[in-house]
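User: Here's a chain of 271 residues. Predict its fold as tokens.
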Amino acid sequence: MMMECYFDDSSDPKRQHYFACGGVVGGQEQWDAFDVLWANETAGLKEPFRATECECGHGQFTNWEKPERDALMARLVNVLHLFKLYGIASIVPIEAFKRVFPNLDSKEAFFLAVTQNIMNMAHVAHQSYMNLLYLNADLWFERGPHNGAIQKIYDDICALDWKPAQRLTGFHLKTKELRPLQAADMVAREAFKHIDNLGIRQTRRPVLEMSDTLCFLLWTEKSLAYLAANGGPRNLKFLSEFNDSLDAPLLQHFWRKSWAFHEKVAREKKQ
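Assistant: Prediction complete.
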């Protein structure tokens, strides 16, 4: 059995607030059914769907009225909800990352989010394997300027002496023509906006609609400092064991806590 995982990134225009790496996870049959309905809903678009353009009325949505754009977004959210495709995102606060790691380029914050998502997918597949479901995980990312870096992170995780890494069986770089990557774009955008809006605006409707199938994980400055004290974001061995230690500060969880992969039940009791 194969678990297909599609990921994209989102941030603010100047890359000053948060880096989010988010995506959507499901089985092959779920994705086959998804593809038919998503294609139907986006049939009138001239280009692949991009959530930021739809929300802001840019690009191919320049001449669309807001109610029309909102209606399309609602229908696409419904497609994800209908097939119970799960959304996952890792979000890293850029200012806190810079304070903790002043000598690292801020793009390392994005790579940390990528690393966490890849490891979480390996962990989920491994847990399923241990329960005799025998899942493997194939991963897709949108092709872009960091292709080589993301590929190296994936390869280095696969090379770890870490049993969950054995469940990672495929890595692919594709364009937004691949419809599941359009869905990943939506989840990554919603994850970024949710954290960026905390305490300022009400929770956005797409997040409320998908809340039972979402898990957003936010790195705190305390958790970043703990990582810094143990080799930093490129210490993959330590990251693979991060939540096995009861001393590790909890990341903030939003929405479905049962989807907080790589988190021991015993650690929840620390809260």
